[in-house]
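wait is this the right file?? whatever heres the structure
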């Protein structure tokens, strides 16, 4: 599986069919922090081996960006078994991102935006 699978018009359908944990990263081509986060995810594949990674270009998919209330990039959203779990906030450090995922999954899911 590629490190980041692009999502576009089939966002909800693809996530609904994805079992396990999914992390959706909203990015933009001019976003330096987004590039750094994508690099970390690529370099640390083993740490995120159980997580399906998806990418949304916030500039290309404005409707989805608005739906999720994305105002700053990168923005991360966590799903489990296709259901929305929460917005994920973490420093762009591999161990802290992994800890944030695990902590979030220990809590109940939230209502989707």
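ok assuming it is, sequence goes like this
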């Amino acid at each position: 599986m590629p490190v980041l699978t692009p999502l576009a018009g089939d966002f909800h359908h693809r996530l609904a069919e994805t079992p396990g944990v999914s992390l959706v990263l909203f990015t933009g081509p001019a976003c330096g922090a987004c590039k750094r986060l994508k690099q970390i995810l690529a370099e640390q594949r083993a740490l995120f081996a159980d997580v399906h990674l998806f990418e949304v270009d916030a500039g290309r998919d404005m409707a989805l960006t608005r739906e999720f209330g994305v105002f700053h990039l990168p923005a991360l959203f966590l799903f489990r078994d296709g259901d929305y779990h929460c917005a994920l906030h973490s420093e762009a450090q591999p161990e802290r991102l992994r800890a944030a995922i695990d902590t979030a999954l220990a809590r109940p899911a939230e209502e989707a935006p």
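The beta strands are 5-6, 21-27, 51-57, 75-80, 83-88. so i think its the right one actually
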